[in-house]
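Hey team,

Filing this mostly as a record. A colleague (T.K.) asked me to run one chain through the structure pipeline before their review meeting, and I want the input and output archived in the tracker in case anyone asks later how it was produced. No errors, nothing strange. Just documentation.

Input sequence:
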Amino acid sequence: MLVSFSIPNRLKALRKASGLTQEDFAERAGISYKFYQHIESGRKRFLRIDTVERICIAYQISLAEFFKAKHPQPSQRTGANKKAGWPKIDCSKYERI
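Output structure:
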């Protein structure tokens, strides 16, 4: 049985489950806001694996979890400010897209 998988739908579901705006998430992942908008809207059809890896790191899930048919929820942190508990990601080894 072939399972349909949509990266834009997956990203939108993860982002909404995390309670983040597109801009907040793009900053966390170390990619530009416009680029992330294009990915989530489906206008950017082909992604490099390192871009997907950045997104997975920001959501604290593995690449395998990202592409699973049954999707786990992104890691949740407790506290009044949802953003406060997230670790900073060192993206200095990546160039900005």
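Quick notes for T.K.: The chain is about 45% helix and 0% strand. The domain at 7-67 is CATH 1.10.260.40 (434 Repressor (Amino-terminal Domain)).
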